[in-house]
Design a protein that fits this description.
alpha/beta; 5-stranded parallel sheet; globular; binds flavin-adenine dinucleotide
Length: 323
Amino acid sequence: MARKVLVLGEVRDGALRNVSFEAVAAAKKAAEGGEVVGVLIGDSIQSLGNSLIKYGADRVVAVEDEKLKQYTSDGFTQAFMAVVESEKPEGIFLGHTALGKDLSPRIASKLNSGLVSDVTDIEESGGNLVFVRPIYSGKAFEKKIVTDGLIFATIRPNNITPLEKDESRSGEVTSLSAEIKDLRTVIKEVVRKASEGVDLSEAKVIIAGGRGVKSADGFNPLNELAQVLGGAVGASRGACDADYCDYSLQIGQTGKVVTPDLYIACGISGAIQHLAGMSNSKVIVAINKDPEANIFKVADYGIVGDLFEVVPMLTEEFKKLKV
Ligand code: FAD
């Protein structure tokens, strides 16, 4: 059944986040030959519309207002609902990001709709769209079918491959005015805590440190390896609790959930709460001096050794490959 599907293009620092292109690919599948309409919300963001089109959207609707410069739950809900009312979609897709996780239930409740969250794949079976999502902290996957009404889903970053960018694609980028009023939150200043560089939740390579790094300076070799591999640095809660790094780096049940192509765990024991955030990574390498460490049970490659010897050796070898 051909459907019209809306996809939110999530903007950060003036650029679209990669998960937006992944959500477009998912929406294309769910549209089943229907129309994929990109949605942009913000201030001076209309120029980003063409990128969404080159990655598969058929056209884009932009809601611009200076009150939408920063994300607020009220503001974005009002803007997105204005697009929904004007477009009357049969499907809505957002990234399963901090923004998507906050916005999607608000929209779903306004539309009295269900929501399939944290989708990692979409399959087709017997004429139905089947949404795959992890449950029990990633230990199992469930498959959901939406039998009736709006298909509304959030897409976990780094799982669905975006369509190839097609420079020849073109489509309309139109603006829609929406009345943004009665905002209960006013963002006065944004203070960044996370380190600069690659965004942890979308990184293809993550070098994570645990209590085994022993100090804040112990993260230096991990930073160097991340730099050589173009990756991001993450951490266990053990390392965060010990004040070796900021909590914004925490991966796990109460931290970020990540699915990079390569996850290198350094001095992390592999507690169940840590595994909940990283065990779906495509390739896991564990470096730990304890051969019995639990992390080796989920690792594809295990190195029993001192991270302060192993990590610099890896950095040097990867540097040679880059020359
Ligand atoms: P440890 O368990 O102390 O492990 C350190 C490891 O480093 C050891 O295996 C040791 O052999 C190794 N090591 C030491 N020195 C070296 C060296 N020189 N070279 C190589 N290896 C070395 N944890 C999370 O990570 N994320 C979460 O989101 C999270 N949420 C939680 C929620 C709840 C409700 C609870 C109760 C706990 C949660 N935890 C979480 C904590 C979790 O249970 C563990 O305590 C934590 O993950 C341990 O961190 P760690 O592996 O860095 O430290």
